[in-house]
Design brief:
Layout: E1 8-9, E2 15-17, H1 19-29, H2 32-39, H3 41-44, H4 64-84, H5 87-101, H6 123-143, H7 146-162, H8 177-187, H9 190-205, H10 213-216, H11 228-234, H12 237-245, H13 248-265, E3 274-275, E4 278-279, E5 288-289, H14 291-307, H15 311-324, E6 335-336, E7 338-339, E8 360-361, H16 368-383, E9 385-387, E10 393-395, E11 401-405, E12 408-414, E13 421-426, E14 430-437, E15 445-449, E16 452-453, E17 462-469, E18 473-479, E19 483-487, E20 499-503, E21 506-511, E22 514-519, E23 533-538, H17 552-556, E24 567-568, E25 579-582, E26 595-603, E27 622-623, E28 628-635, E29 642-643, E30 648-649
Parallel strand pairs: 10-14, 27-30
Antiparallel strand pairs: 1-9, 2-11, 3-4, 5-7, 6-8, 9-10, 11-12, 12-13, 13-18, 14-17, 15-16, 15-18, 19-20, 20-21, 21-28, 21-29, 22-23, 24-26, 25-26, 26-28
Length: 652
């Protein structure tokens, strides 16, 4: 069986989390990753959940919500279990898989639509089933259990037979192409690829959301043409079919659409804009639905192994280390469904799109974003390392991890992206090439092998170190980074062209001090002690952060003098005007940042209304300013309230 991808993924469980990534996953085990199925059992725990289980869904014709939400959660749980190599989680994952397998019908179908009146051609049948099949395939990759692969294979053949011809759908059902392709990788059954390709062609004639591969090849990307998260999913499907067929038009379509989205709809933080869930324009307060972090990260990871291009690793780092972390509560017990670069409030009334979806909560009545947050971390870690057919190693994204595969044992020790030095410890006796990505922001680098300088020129975006490795060998690479002051192109939104600041892989923001106020919220199942919904608002003094303000005057304040977030930057600010402070590790990196930037700004007392309940776009291109102030910036991912896109000061 011939496939056409340049590189290969490692099987689940070959790459393990280390360092602060392991710490984040361990916190997640005690947070949403390990407990969502208990917090919302009717929505998540039982395979397969259909509309009969959940009161909020009983009026809907489709049962597929359960497949999507439960399936995607267990995909993330299984991936986390084997990435942490956690026996307790592995045991629970195995229990879910075994229960899942009992639902397979004699004709091979394995989905939520098993009632007598089930609408088996409903779009959500394929969409929901695809989520659960990803979970089963992940489990198969980690364990090699052939009965699990056989169950998925039979289910895929059910769709090939039942959804043939024009019985396909064109909203989200095409997601079934993904498990089709991966099942083909493991079985070589060409019927699966024939169906997948037939589906791609079907979409070209039934493309109401402009996500067919032919539309992706067109010159323009249209705002409001599709759900942003659907684009994040659909954009990888043609490339996946290319990997099985070698038909370059499919790969070209995926590459082009990603480029278009990056140019028009992705913030500097890597956050794809989803205005009322649809493709929207870059802007300081345009929001991102959390699902997008997971779906786009996975698409970048797939594009990385299919093309071998290191730029996709840069995109993984951008979205994971910035936007995705900035919308997570640091105890991993809540996320914001919607978030934005400039956010002074994250409350039940602060969103410009939906009523309470900027609030922080562990699970929402529509739980697609919470379960997507569970898949994000292990999928990022799994995508960091790749290999070619000769088992040469490619590092496409950086972070602390370890690899054990076919006698190759490597430990990557680093605080990247908080530091720009990465050390690889080789713990085997074997010959292979270690290919190290050169990030696009890098302005120079030094490589050493066993402490001695190693001279090599980059080729195709990688530095290659190839030798006969021995126990205890080390490779160290250190990247030179420079401060970047970026003028944000918001020409299709507010046309304010605000300023943002980057250093290396990190975007920096002013961290607005916050108060976390517990609220009742709208959980479908009453939450146990230690869990809750939260309004997050600015803290205007040093009172206890758990204290709820007594009235609106205290809540929103009346002091223009105090408000430290009423600030603007000189548009002529230079990199040399910014000081870099590296701090020692002091606990969890997303709570205690290891790096800060120091510069100056100007007080802009009339920048926003005095006591708003939302974050507003500034009304002028240049802001009236008074005093010159010191300004400290933190990594975006270390914040929950922040200013990232700074208005320009009127200094003349």
């Amino acid at each position: 069986m011939k496939t056409y991808q340049k590189l290969n993924r490692f099987p689940l469980g070959a790459i393990h989390a280390e360092g602060f990534l392991k710490q984040q996953m361990e916190i997640g085990k005690n947070g949403m990753t390990g407990h969502l199925y208990e917090l919302e059992p009717d929505m998540i725990a039982t395979p397969y959940i259909n509309k009969a289980h959940v009161d909020a869904w009983t009026d809907a014709e489709q049962s597929g919500w359960g497949g999507e939400i439960s399936g995607n959660y267990w995909t993330g749980y299984i991936e986390a279990a084997y990435t942490l190599n956690d026996p307790e989680m592995i045991k629970r994952a195995e229990k879910w898989v075994n229960e899942m397998m009992k639902h397979q019908k004699a004709d091979g179908y394995l989905g939520t639509y098993y009632e007598e009146d089930a609408l088996i051609y409903d779009d959500y049948n394929a969409w929901g089933t695809a989520g659960a099949m990803r979970a089963l395939l992940a489990f198969y990759e980690a364990t090699g259990r052939e009965d699990v692969l056989e169950a998925v294979h039979r289910c895929m053949l059910w769709f090939c037979n039942t959804w043939s011809g024009n019985k396909k759908t064109c909203y989200a059902g095409e997601y079934i192409i993904e498990p089709m392709v991966f099942t083909y990788y493991y079985t070589g059954d060409t019927r699966l690829i024939e169906f997948a390709e037939e589906y791609l062609e079907f979409l070209c004639g039934h493309d109401i959301f402009r996500i067919s591969y032919k539309d992706m090849l067109e010159e323009d990307l249209h705002y409001y043409s599709a759900h942003t998260v659907a684009v994040g999913m659909a954009v990888r499907l043609p490339a996946l079919v290319y990997s099985a067929t070698g038909k370059k038009k499919y790969l070209d379509a995926s590459i082009r659409r990603i480029k278009q989205v990056l140019e028009k709809s992705v913030q500097i933080t890597g956050s794809p804009v989803s205005t009322a869930e649809y493709l929207g324009a870059v802007g300081s307060i345009t929001e991102t639905e959390y699902c997008n972090y997971s779906y786009f990260n996975e698409s970048y990871a797939y594009m990385g192994y299919i093309t071998g291009e290191p730029q996709y690793g840069d995109l993984m780092e951008q979205i994971f280390y910035n936007g995705a972390q900035g919308a997570r509560k640091k105890d991993e017990k809540a996320i914001a469904y919607l978030n934005a670069p400039n956010q002074l409030y994250a409350t039940d009334s602060s969103s410009h799109e939906f009523s309470d979806y900027q609030v922080y909560a562990p699970c929402f009545p529509t739980a697609c974003c919470p379960v997507a947050s569970v898949t994000l971390v292990p999928e990022f870690i799994r995508g960091m390392l790749l290999h070619d057919d000769s088992d040469n190693i490619y590092v496409i994204a950086y972070g602390p991890c370890s690899l054990n595969y076919k006698g190759i044992s490597i430990k990557e020790k680093t605080y990247y992206p908080f530091r720009n030095k990465v050390t690889f410890e080789i713990n085997c006796n074997k010959s292979f090439a270690l290919n190290l990505k050169i990030p696009s922001w890098c302005r120079g680098f030094n490589v050493s092998v066993n402490g001695g300088e190693y001279a090599a020129a980059p080729k195709n975006g990688y530095i290659t170190v190839e030798k006969e490795w021995h126990q205890g060998d080390t490779v160290e690479i250190e990247f030179k980074a420079e401060i970047e002051i970026v003028k944000i192109n918001d020409c299709d939104c507010a046309k304010k062209y605000p300023l943002a600041i980057k250093y290396g892989a990190l975007v920096f923001a002013y961290h607005v001090p916050e108060i976390w106020i517990p609220i009742k919220g709208r959980p479908m199942t009453e939450l146990p002690e230690g869990w809750g919904w939260y309004n997050v608002i600015p803290r205007e003094n040093e009172r206890n952060a758990a204290t709820e303000p007594e009235d609106d005057h205290e809540r929103f304040g009346l002091s223009r003098d105090y408000r430290p977030w009423h600030i603007a930057l000189d548009e002529n600010l230079k990199p040399e005007d910014i000081e870099i402070e590296e701090l020692p590790e002091n606990g969890y990196v997303w709570s205690s940042p290891m790096i800060k930037l120091h510069t100056h700004c100007y007080k802009a007392p009339y920048l926003w209304p005095l006591y708003p309940q939302k974050t507003y776009e500034p009304l002028e291109d240049y802001q009236y300013v008074t005093d010159k102030l010191e300004l400290t910036l933190e990594p975006y991912g270390c914040t929950n309230l922040r200013i990232t896109y700074f208005p320009k000061a009127r200094l003349k």
